[in-house]
Structures are given as structure tokens and as C-alpha cells.
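Example 3.2
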Amino acid sequence: MPKHAAALDISSSEEMRTDKASSAVTGSGGTVTMEQQLPADSMGLIDVDGYRRLMKSFMDMRRYQTALFWAEKVTVLSNNDPRDVYWQAQCMFLLREYHRAAYIIRSRGLDKRNLLCHYLAAECLTEAKEYQEALDILNSVDCEVLAKNMGTGRKDESTVGEDPVFDEPNKSDVLASIYFLKGKILEAMDNRILAMDCYVQALHRSVYCSEALDALVQHEMLMAWEEKELMQHIPMEQQCSEAERRILKRLYESKLKKYYESVAPQTNTEQTPIGTISTDLLHELTEKLKNSKNIESNKAAAAASSLPKNFTTPLPNKLMSPVNKILDEIKNTPSYLIQSSLSKASSFLASGGGSGGGVSGGSASRQETPYRINRPVSMQSPSAINIQNCCDRLDNCVDLVVSKAEKYFYNCDYKKCMKIIDE
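Structure, written as C-alpha cells:
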């Protein structure tokens, strides 16, 4: 081909490209750029949120190693965004790489600047049985300050109206988890008194933290009357609606001690037989019991009349059996801290802030409280259930069925207990 023909072809192709570019600049809507006419992927743009969703998808399918691979890439792409570092450490935690997960958080200083990272780093070291080091993390900063700086989700001006990739948990739930974790650490270090205090604090931060109640009850940290007192003091009214409070109270009371409760007389034929007794014999035994009580009271009156005048006889309602005396001494022992724990938590909530209650050791008071939980439910919601229907359904849940069987067991009604267990 001649040289002048080749030059002509090159110039014509350049003119065609120039014409296409100029047609892209002008349009019906005014002047637009070439980039605005092209799709995002042809411009070489990467949607980091797409990788976040990919990582979350693999986590939901329990492919933690694959999730970790993409979580690390997201962390690099976002320049160590605290939420991405948190989820990278979360993948390592699920892979039981506890020291590695704690390291990537602490090496970036996020255990002192981000509430979720602060909690996860301490939990990693707890699972690695590095209890003192985990306790040092929890005591190093004021978690209440971190809670105030906690975000409400990964939303910005460009994503208004869209759901974030990862929803932020409720602040009070995170704080309750931190107090529960510290109680777990202290209990592992044989400091049961302070551990009990942390569990009570956790329940006051979030009444939905059922693990804190389980620790108090199952580890025998409270007596029966203390469990009752705890149930009266935890702030269900402030954190729940009336319907939720009824459900929560019913569920929590099923966890409390049952063997101290008296059994009402039952006439059910399936009750465990303890021997048949006639009505006449029962009446006779009742009369003998009354007579013996009268004889004892007469003896006490005669003994009192023979005493000197200056001797003061205690009133009957002041008399205490040895067992009651021991219980009263335990209750009034300064080292027994259930009252102080409840009063500390209640005063914290009443003031609308606090010093961290032993987790951080700070002393500044705060005006706003993150502990009031409002969960409005519309009756038009497809998940809304009538309270009575809800209670009926809960009768079939494992916790309440086991609780009912335990009551029959401790009351020696073994037939009913076995019937419930068999069902």
C-alpha cells in the first residue's frame, strides 16, 4: 500500500474518534463528560461494599477461611477502616486464631478507640486464657466514652435510605457484653464477689443479657431471696414495653431456684403416691397438732411468769430459728455485696451515666444514657403477635418446659415430671 494511502487511513480514523468524542460531549440534556456515558466497571472502579457483602456471605455459610481472605483485602482497600478491621478479627476469632485476632486490633490501637474492637480484643485473649491481659484491656479505657463515640451504621450522604452492609449492634447490648465478659474473667480468676458485681451490672445495662442471669443462678452466686430481689431491681420498665416485660419476667423467673417453694395440696390422681390417708385420720392429726401447739405455748407462758421482773422476753415475731439466724447474718455480712451491686447499678441508671462501674474505673458523670431501649412494634407488622398468643406459644419452649419439670422434681412429684420429660 502506498505511504500516502496509509496516512490517509490514519487521519480518517483519528477524525472518526474525534467525531465520537464530540458527540458524547453534546447531548439533549446539555454537556456531559465521556466518563458519565460509560458504565462504572469500564472506568476501572471497584465497589468495596461488594467485597464486604461477599465476605459476609461466606461467613454466613461458615466458610471462614475464604471470608478471612476477602476481609483482609477489604481492610487494605479501606485503609484500615475500624469496622473492616473488626470483621477481619472476627473471622480470625471464628477460626480460633485468638492471638492473631487480638494483635491486628491492638497493633492499630483500636482496642482504645473503638468499642467493638475493644470488646473483641478482650474476648480473644479470654478465649486464649490470657485472663490478666484481657482484664488489663478492659481496665485500660472507659468503655462508656467509647460507647458515646460508637457509630450508628455504615451510612453516609451517598447511601441515605440504603441498608448498611453491617448493622451496628445496640450500644447497651455491647456494654452489657463487656460487663459480662469481665465477670467471666474475674470468675475464672476466683474473684467471685467482683464477678457477681459485673454480672449484675451487665443485667442493668441490658436486661436482655440472659447469660449474666445464667451465671448468677447456675454458678450459685445468689441465694433464693437475692434472686427475687435481683428480679425486682433490674430495669425492665425502662428498657422494655409492658408486653415485653411480661414475657421477659416469665422467662427469667423460670431460671430461678425452685426447690424452696412450697407445694400446694393437689388431688390429681397422677400425683406421686405417698400413702393413702383417711379423712378422719387427717382430722385427728390436725387436732393433735393444735393441742401440741397449745401445750407448748402454755409451757412458754409458765416459764416466762417464773422469770424475774427485770428479764425482758423477746416478742414472738422476733424469735429466730438457727437457720434464719444464719441467713440473717449472711445477709448483713459486709462482704456479701448483692445490695451494693444493685444500688450501684440503680444509681448509675438514675443519674443517666456513670463511671464505668468497675470496667474502666473512671469517675466522670454523664447526662445522656444509652441504656433505654425502645423497640416500637406496629400491629400491622407481619411479625407482630398478640401477647396472649405469645404466652401460649412460649409454653412449648424448652426453657419453660424444663422449668416446669424441675418444679415437679423438687416437689417429689416424679410421675408428672416424667410425663413432661417423655413428652
